[in-house]
Amino acid sequence: MKSRRYLLTGIVLLLTPLVAFANAGTALMWASGLHFLFGNAILGFIEGQLVSRFFNTLRVKAVAALISFFIQTWVIKLRKLRLSRRLLTLPQLIPE
Predict the structure, then answer these.
(1) What is the pTM of this model?
(2) Fewer CB within 10 Å, N- or C-terminus of the chain?
(3) Do 45 and 34 contact (CB within 8 A), yes or no?
(4) Position 70 pLDDT exceeds 90
(5) Judging by beta carbons within 10 Å of its beta carbon (0-12, 13-18, 19+), is residue 44 exposed, middle or buried?
(6) pLDDT tens-digit profile of 51-63?
(7) How far apart are CA 18 and CA 21, in angstroms?
(8) What percent of the chain has pLDDT over 90?
(9) How far apart are CA 35 and CA 27, in angstroms?
(10) Closest CA to 52 of 38, 66, 42
């Protein structure tokens, strides 16, 4: 009986029209940045573990160094991207 009620509720919800909002993309803008941030942190953690294992260093230092390196390279890439966008929007110095 319960599964029939859940099925009926699911069908009603699927068939009910919903309104789409134009400002719903804001969360998507933040998602890529957070994906890069946490993705780089996870990669830094994994590679830090490998570096500490192969070179017999302290795990905490290796992991912290690699996470900070990954995040620094991400910030540098963002700055270069912003600079290139500014340069592309400058007016042409040589007339066509």
Answers:
(1) 0.56
(2) C
(3) no
(4) no
(5) buried
(6) 999 999 999 999 9
(7) 10
(8) 24
(9) 12
(10) 66
Tokens read off for 80 = 């270069």
The C-alpha atoms of residue 12 and residue 70 are separated, in whole angstroms, by 47
For the chain, domain boundaries: 35-89
Give the chain's largest Cα–Cα span: 77
What pLDDT sits at residue 52?
Answer: 93
Tokens of 34: 């957070």
**3-state SS assignment for residue 34:** helix
CA distance 79 to 68: 16
Give 73's DSSP letter. Answer: H
Residues 6+ apart with CB under 8 A from 63: 44, 45, 48, 49, 52
90 and 84 in contact (C-beta within 8 Å)?
no
